[in-house]
Amino acid sequence: MSELALRVVVSIVAAPLALWIVLVGGAPLAALLAMVSAVGAWEFFRIARGAGEHPVADVGIVLAGLVPLAIHASYLGLFTVRPALVALLVLGLLGGTIWLRGVGGRPIGSAATTILGVVYTAGMLGFAYAIRYHDTVIGYDTVAAKHLALGPFALRVPPGGALLIFPLVITWASDIGAYFTGRAIGGRKLIPSVSPGKTVAGAVGGLVASMLVSWLYARAVLVPVASLGFTPWGAVLFGALISMAAQIGDLFESLIKREGGVKDSSRIIPGHGGILDRFDSLLFVLPVAYLLLGWLPIPVFR
User: Fold this and answer.
1) Taking burial as the number of CB atoms within 10 A of a residue's CB, which of 48, 87, 123, 268 is the most buried?
2) pLDDT at residue 1 in the model
3) How far apart are CA 82 and CA 73, in angstroms?
4) Contact 166/290 with Cβ under 8 angstroms?
5) Tens-place pLDDT, residues 234-289
6) Where are the domains of the chain?
């Protein structure tokens, strides 16, 4: 099977499963985020070792996997994530480097890289769960899902699911728009020292595609499903900012891979590379989207 065919097969299997988990939310979403966070942290520490760092990988991977589960438990009221607890975990890691790394084990870089790996993966992916249960939709029909007609088909889409799909769709639109515009026009490179294949035209194409998809999704999905609307300029602004976050996230992952001397973060996803290769944009998009979704949407009373 060719690389392209393998990529298509994996996408056909994974995309519907991921969509179902997003719509269901709850424990399945937390479990998916925990798995992705743990593997993403493993990949990050692999890259960091290639750059000469010595992270406490075992501890970091476990913590990354636990963060989404802790967020889920806090939303159920079973557990409260307190700043003091987060500080205690950080202090425990810093103290542990005394024995785990010592003077000759580069303790500063070890501790810093471990903390960054957890924050960069689980800390950012945790915002996917927060968007699924965002305060913006929690008061507007969050129990009963609504039907959304898609041609001859109809899906029962909960408001929180529609809200989480929103930045995901815009991110995909940004990637697709940038890819095809860059290939069609070419021209000046964006940041060749970081990512030689990306062009200024591609970046603009991704931006335009995102703004268009954001405007369409806000009107066609968020209004009927989540009782939320955007002003035209608000929808366009949301799409533009999400596209910029997505492209910066992609560039950041390219940057750390160059420092680590690797082409892909791993080969764990057949035909697609690693978790970070697939989720690099979303790691920047999700927290930005969470903030914007608290500011820009307008309740629509029907």
Assistant:
1) 48
2) 56
3) 13
4) no
5) 999 999 999 999 999 999 999 999 999 999 999 888 777 899 999 999 999 999 99
6) 13-133, 152-302
